[in-house]
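Here comes an entry:

___
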Amino acid sequence: MEERASPSQPPSSPLTPGYFLDRYELLCPLADGGMASVWVARLRGKHGFEKLLAIKTILPQFASDERFQEMFLDEARIASRIEHPNVAQIVDLGEQHDITYLVMEWVDGDSLSRLYRSLKKKGVGLPPNVLLRIVADVCGGLHAAHELKDDHGALLGVVHRDVSPQNILASTRGVAKLIDFGIAKARDRLGGETNAGLMKGKIHYMAPEQALGSAVDRRADVFAVGAILYHYLAGAPPFDGDNQLAILNRLSSKQPPMPLPKTVHPGVAAIIKRCLAHSPDQRFATAAELQAALELAMVEARLTCTQAQVAEFVGDHGATRTASRKEAIDLALSAAAERARIRGVLRPNPEASATGVLASSTDFQKTQTDQPASASTSYATLGSATLEAPIALQAQPPSHKRTILLIAAAGLVVAVAVAAALLVVTHRTASPVAAAVVRPTIDGSPLKPAPQPIPTSADDIPVLEADSLPLAASTVTAVKPLPSAPASTPTIATSAPTASTKRRGSYGF
């Protein structure tokens, strides 16, 4: 995959720093290619565990294309089976919010194509020993992919079909990594060969049979390795032209490429010539065979190179980009820490809420115990419990919910009982029988009380103030005449209530 600077995502993309794809937090964009973008992400675990990873997602403009989806899933399925130090490891595959993503190991380094362009700007060529070391290691990863088998031991027929300098990474530790199996061919690939006949890959490194849409096998990848070596040792691709059609004509003409410069060791030149043979049968049969030939040629040409030397080379010529990546990642980590701090400040404190609710519950119980059972106390307590109960259900752990509900229920029962008692007392004092206990007489004839309507509902029951309640019959003996009343003012006699009167007054009617 060609790596290019990606200062910003397309407007339609929801991906931004701080966005979570499942448990992976996106930190900053790294690169984009023909069908996908790559982000640096972070995975955090318990006890301070933290790991940087690379996440590849399909670009929004291709997300709805089933072909790209199939290729993307194929890459994950195929590459995840390959276990080799020179193949970028696939860690996870997921989908969230209609975004399919591929999680890969984070490789801190540059692609071979970027290193070459950087050196070319400086007027410096890529050292042959470093080039041979990187390419020989990639051959080891290629062979592991070619030898991939199913559960029954049958070869899957994996062919990368896009071995190119853009898909070879050289890490700061000197390890070469082959990436991007997105258009790999496998015998049982999920996407199938629905696009047979279409040219896939980069034409400058493409085998003739692949460019012409014919059947390919692992020897097409061998051709691509030879084309990379030729390009970076000669300074130009083996088959070049003004456009793709001209290049395709060169590939199909069966004419060999121009001879390599004389500065190239004959043993290395012979290996490249064999890789670029038009007929697959004339090439190396496997990538492992090619790797062994390169190792031997390096010794013969005194071009040996160790992994440490590759790391030193990448560190010298990729220092600016390495420092830029580190600065971007450090800044992204600082921003992530600040986002986490803000989330912590804005997040409600469950313990504080629980403490407040428990204190309210304790006050409620204390109120019920210490204060007398009056209407004002009961309704005030019930109102407090009614307000606190929803808070308790939201903030408390499940073990406190039952306690809070029981307290609220108890308060409600007490309030209902007090209200009922008040209604009975009010009803007794306001009944006609209580009014008939004191019977004033005028001219010896008792005054009959005005008929009282029988209440039909709770709303019809009169509510009397405490000062307006009539005195009990047992406490009234006589009433002295008013000073201004005439001497013939009749006296007010009292009469004891009958048994039937007491019975009716007890039930309120």
